[in-house]
Amino acid sequence: MTEINAAASERRAPVTSDLPGRSSARATGPARRQRSARQLSPALRKGLLSAHIVTAVGWIGVDIVLLVLALTALTSTDPRTVAASYVAIGAFTVVLLVPAGVLTLATGLLLGAGTRWGIVRYWWLTVKLVITVVLTTLVILLLRPRVAEVASRAEQAGAAGLSRDQLGNLPVDLLFPPVVSIVALIVATVLAVYKPWGKTPSPAGARSAAARARSGPSRRSSVLLPARSADGEDFERGPGRCQRILTWLTSSVPVPPADEEYLMTAVLSSRGHQAPGPRGLPLIGSARELRRDLLGLHLRAMREHGDVVRFWAGPPGARLEFYTVYHPDAVQRVLASESGRYRKDNQFYEEVRRAFGDGVLSSQDERWHRQRRLTQPLFTKARVAAAVPSIVAETDRLAQRWHPAAGGDGMVDLHAEMTRLTMLVVGRTVFGADFEEVLPVVNETFLPLAEHTLKRGFTPLRTPRSWPTPANRRAADAQRTLYRVVDEIIARRRAAPTGTDDLLTLLLEARDPGTGQALDDAEIRDQVLLFLLAGYETTATTLTMALHLLGRHPEVQARVRAEVDTVLSGRTPVAGDLAGLGYTTRVVQEVTRLYPAAYIIGRRTPGGDRIGEFSIPPRADVYVCPWATHRHPEFWTHPDRFDPERFIPERAATRHRYAWFPFGGGPRGCLGQHFSIAESLTAIALLIRAYRINTPPGDIPLATRITLRPAGPVPCSITPTT
Question: Would you say residue 437 lies in a domain?
Fold first, then answer.
């Protein structure tokens, strides 16, 4: 981790605490009990904070609407429009602006009262709210008669057919309510932002200067960080002024100091341990980039901020915050060497468990250990070798189906074809002959259920699954249909075993080596659904991009074809032939470097961790990103270039183990990686032997779903080799 440490030391202020994220001294005894007794409960605080944010944002929105209506009334040439604008101004000010201001004031005062010194210590919050509400209310009360009078006059003028000029001059003081409200917000914000933070006044009875010096720096909200540290150095990685201003507009509420979960990030930041990261847009952070260009965001973050990066997205009260690590040392720590610190407790895996069951992909603790013992023997090299004939048969059917296209315009959609191929291979491997019954249901239900899972896995505000929203109902219907079909097949197999060697039969026969216990029907259903989820789309992406890149690089394609002809000599491949396809294997490895199907892998650390010089707070979400690490400039020269020679044994031996990890790593590495590689090698060998592939120019847009996949068709032209 020396590289991370060196980079971190150049970017951060010196750290004085011996324990990351903690104050060097904590209040004890009666003082601590007195402080805790005055604090709000976490649930009540979060509810008040949410209400404060909603009403404050609504307040600003009403101000903007009032300004637009006022300008419309003053500039319109139609008396009827003038009348309607005045009527709307009166309604908005009375019905919306005053209640929004009063509610914001009330929630702010309640939140302030929940701290040790209440709103006395945070006087700028009271200034903002009281000035705005009082002045706006007075102006509204004074203007109401005039607004009503002008509206009536304009309505009469419109009914009489008079022009706007004949209506006469209109009072411009109707602009006062929104202007006063906005000016008051700006003034209070300036007072807050430029306040000398190190000299916060405290009421009588507060600690003396000597006591404050002995107890170390006080804790602060992450929004109200000091501009400089205690020794005068700038906090280079702290929140920017624009972010502080706009965040404070909607959430300048003191946070109870004893709320460790809420304050941990702020403490780390104020003491110099905060990891750097993109500032993003005011109020929403990186939300737009995470939605529009997730892959590009991670590449830019790695290059601009280093190997440990903090991201945030969304407004206060509904904010997602997570960390992503890019250096192979840090990846190894999260996935392998310190994997005990990291769990699959995050929101995404919770949604996977609810949608597809708690199989070996998502389970934890003793349940995971038991499932791993039962399922790992099903993915040995001998088992994978037994599946090769099925892969060959399905690929041969695909090659035969391509003959009409090769005789016509010669164009096929690689993504659609590879998805169908891998679905058939994985489905028959799991269900055997029963997959014909499952296939229509999988095609109908898998995609909507996976999309719903992904959306709920990364949104900060989720509706309860029990609410009958259209999305929840569609997902519930899809899940019921899928579960029903799989449960029927499992029950039928238990009643009348088929004696086949598909995965479902092996799961029914599996016994725990330690206890002799078998999997129940629900556990078997969870395993087969997660094998389908993780097995077909990942390999489909690898095969699609491999054939696409071979079409772009005819010299590489010719070398693969020559190797296949040499090794197979025109015969049907068997499992033993795959070891001889060394160059083709390197092609697959390079494809999975450039286009890892598992483009990002998430964990949560319950107790926190330290990665390099940066502290990760407890209960933080931590991600590793193969897409970015596979392009780390320290380990890959010309990282965007397609070059299978990177993986010749001599070069691979000198590279960090976790510079390339398309199948994860550590104790929770992918069980099916050998199956995926065998399937990819077999399919590429048979298709390249049968056809020459040519890819049209142009980039392939990518979609970051549960797995990485092309966002649309991937066309290529095919020509028979014989």
Answer: yes
